[in-house]
Amino acid sequence: MSSQLLKGKRGIIFGALDESSIAWKVAEKAFSEGAVFTLTNAPIAMRMGEINKLADKCNTIVIPADATSVEDIEKLITESMEKLGGKLDFILHSIGMSPNVRKNRGYTDLSYDFLMKTLDVSAISFHKIMQTAYKLDAMNEWGSIVGLSYIAAQRTFPSYSDMADAKSTLESIARSFGYHYGKHRKVRVNTISQSPTWTTAGSGVKGFDAFYAYADKLSPLGNASAESCADYCLFLFSDMSRMVTMQNLFNDGGFSSVGVSDEIMQLLMKE
Ligand SMILES: NC(=O)c1ccc[n+]([C@@H]2O[C@H](COP(=O)([O-])OP(=O)(O)OC[C@H]3O[C@@H](n4cnc5c(N)ncnc54)[C@H](O)[C@@H]3O)[C@@H](O)[C@H]2O)c1
């Protein structure tokens, strides 16, 4: 049931590709909690057309933008403020892509051109979005900007390859920009470190089913769903979290604090 947690708030949601996308769930829930927002994705993702269905459901528009292009981001933010009738209160960065992972290039055989693309799309785009919003003075005071991360930023998951470096950079950008935006306009910046989740980006990682099953067996609460991640995003967009900034927050069913679980022990014990 809706409590209109985000009533009166305006935002931009990056990264809804299809119904399984975490950003898709955030949009549906933000809409039912009273927020108004625009949707955006890379022009190439638009061709699939799914995002238009989401826009219809959320009574909004889609503004295409490649998150690596400052020019596209400027246009997106300016048009969003026009469409929504004022400055923004929240932005969701739900973007990740590694050509190395896609092409199965392991960490000891990276293409450096691909690595640059991974970092630009998955991490530096977060800085580009914030710097553009900062320069356009597009955020209201106490606004909230959220990026989505993964625990490979802190611990090694071999097949996550260069995405681990992108996530470490993403989390660092959240802290660094969070300082400046906090001082400047009291804008908050956080990342949510999410459990493995069955989405297009998630399942593109080699051995994803094993990642998923392992995390599920290790976490006392089991893996966090995309819906629960969306709930956490809404809490961070809301005034309920107004003193939370520069944090990487785990939405992972406890995974990050567990050494070993009974389930994993049982799998490995000889007798
Ligand atoms: N699925 C998981 O297991 C998992 C776990 C932790 C964190 N995350 C993170 O959650 C976020 C959302 O991913 P998801 O799992 O919902 O998958 P998804 O594939 O649905 O979303 C990824 C989005 O990034 C967009 N994108 C790629 N390149 C872009 C560009 N140049 N400009 C603009 N958009 C671009 C894609 O079009 C897509 O919409 C990502 O940051 C991902 O790393 C996912």
A few lines on this structure:
By secondary structure, the protein is of the alpha/beta class. The chain has helices at residues 22-32, 43-46, 50-57, 70-84, 99-102, 112-135, 163-185, 200-203, 208-218, 226-237, 262-268, and strands spanning 10-14, 36-40, 88-93, 139-149, 188-194, 248-251.
C-alpha Rg (nearest Å): 18 Å
**Helix-strand sequence:** EHEHHHEHHEHEHHHEH
Task: Give the domain tally.
Answer: 1
Provide the CATH superfamily. Answer: NAD(P)-binding Rossmann-like Domain
Largest sheet entry: 6 strands, parallel
Topology, number of strands: 6
Termini Cα gap: 49 Å
Q: What would you call the structural class?
A: alpha/beta
Poorly predicted residue ranges: none
Provide the spatial order of strands within the biggest beta sheet: 2-1-3-4-5-6
CATH architecture: 3-Layer(aba) Sandwich
> What is the average of the pLDDT values?
96
CATH topology: Rossmann fold
